[in-house]
Fold:
Amino acid sequence: MENEAIVEQLELLVKLWDLHGINEFKSKNLAFATRGLDKYPLSICQATEEQLLAIPGVGKVVISIIKEVAQTGTCIDLEGILEQTPSGLLNLLKIKGLGPKKVSTIWKELGISDIDELLLACQNNQLVQLKGFSSAIQENVYHYILFLKQNASKLRLDKAHSVAKELITILSAKYEKVQIVGDLARNCEEIASIDCMVLASNTFGAAFALSEIEVLKEDYQNSSPFVWRGNLVNHLIPIQIYFVDSENWAIQSLKLSSHPNHLALIGFDELKLKASFESEHAIYQYLQVPYIIPNMREGLTELKWAITHQETDLIQLEDLKGCVHNHSTYSDGKNSLFEMAEACRQMGLSYFGIADHSQYAAYAGGLKPERISDQHLEIDQLNKNWTNFRILKGIEADILPDGSLDYDASILSSFDYVVASVHAGLQMDEEKAMARLLKAIENPFTTILGHPTGRLLLARQGYPLQMSKIIDACAANRVVIELNASPYRLDLDWRFIDLAQEKGVMISINPDAHEIAGLMDMKYGVEIARKGGLLKNNTFNALNVDEFLQFKNGFK
Ligand SMILES: [Zn+2]
Ligand SMILES: [Zn+2]
Structure:
């Protein structure tokens, strides 16, 4: 069992104890131990008892719970308390801003145990009447529920890719050719349905083959002889499977992978395309427009882009030379500085930038000045071991509520580069958010503006910004904008990449990795960057290490 799944079950147990107001001491202790387990870099399942006992808060009781969860996926305590909890309450526990205690009040005082009832209670102004609830809390809960309902069946890009992989494996056993189309072919940051085409000369036979696959649940009302609609068991996301013969393969591939606006932009008219085309390239040629890669088929500025640039100008994963927004055990990362750097070296990169949290982010073990000196000493030592590879001394400095950065100039000047990010006080109106970010961009020590809007895809909207003004300020102050490659963020929004490039602002594709596995998120960053038309020449971490360092020193 993966660490993440174990930690999730333990967190649920803590929440349920708190919700029912029982085992207060045990709950506090398990919550503390869970935070340590969440950061544990090795497999919890394979750890010895001695190793587990070394984690703060982990004692014999916690170990017995972990063992039970690791072996069975659950434990007696959890099963017992789940039995006493209406299942709808579990959804209420997921609402941002509502801890177990508040959910308990809602449940006990208003008798509400499901999300629709809670939405209604917000509309009827019932929440504000409870002790400890304000109108701001009620407002937040209301908007959050609407947001959740809207996104209930959507998936983040990484999750969608893994469901698609499952689907392709199933379909490949029945069909000779399977191809992903739709949102996922365009690598959209949020996926509303997983669409694919399968090669079928006889659609009725092809549809019948699907009915034999048990894990596929058909939505009979919405299916047709040409398209199967339904979902995979255990996954809410809608699935569409198109049956296509070889003659129409290229036409359907282009049509089904494009946003309708793209088809309009290139003058695609299915009825006029009688000829059987060999490839998508041949169709673009026939329509006398440049070929557009699937990622960019959105019907925005892609044609304009393609007239002035070549597909080969686009950034690719292998163009990246460094990886510069990463965390280690110095702050809230799971792997050591050495392990993270070595993993990057093994990936063929030539520099690794550490950017642990700054002191303001105390919840994430942000670095006090003494720890920075320790880290810099360690980096100097490690750098002696390598030729053609080095660790850069970076920091992810918090942008404080007033827009200043979280260290004084003497400390800020000790770094090779500074990623400036907002982590706290995210509830801001546009005026506040703009003032805060503009001040940080104007700070002479800021090299990169980290995850500019603070959004978490499908979970939290970012604070409001006038992105064109942010881009102008970055251009004026020679600040790079991050494209945070974590599939939870993908922030800067790809829709602004073109504008940033036009204004001469460089983009840095940063995984914000908190463990070695997180480094691979760079691939999502690159897909999204390509979607926005990011050029290799405009990618900050495609520079070699000297150019990277000179960018700041040379111009600030
Ligand atoms: Zn951050
Ligand atoms: Zn970070």
Summary: The chain has 24 helices and 14 strands.
